[in-house]
Write a structure and sequence with these properties.
Elements (H helix, E strand, L loop, with lengths): L1 E3 L5 E3 L3 E6 L2 E6 L6 E2 L22 H13 L1
Length: about 70
């Protein structure tokens, strides 16, 4: 798995996977709260490369909820 490390540099991270449930794997070891996992552009990025971080770091469902709440105001 690739994560964003210090200085926004891509780093390889070994993980231990658990069960596959509803099309998603559970990660048992290797990722901690606050780690930024690279999910887009995996075909292009290599360990040691600088990466551009998109979004605001919140999961997509939280960004969508915040956007919907702001539009209701």
């Amino acid at each position: 798995m690739l994560v964003v490390g210090t200085g926004d540099i891509a780093q390889t991270r070994a993980v231990k996977l658990g069960e596959l449930e509803d099309g998603s794997w559970s990660v048992l070891e290797g990722i901690a709260p606050g780690d930024r996992v690279i999910v887009d552009g995996l075909q292009k990025v290599r360990p040691g490369q600088p990466v551009r971080v998109g979004g605001d770091g919140r999961p997509a469902e939280l960004r969508a909820a915040a956007t919907a709440a702001a539009q209701e105001r």
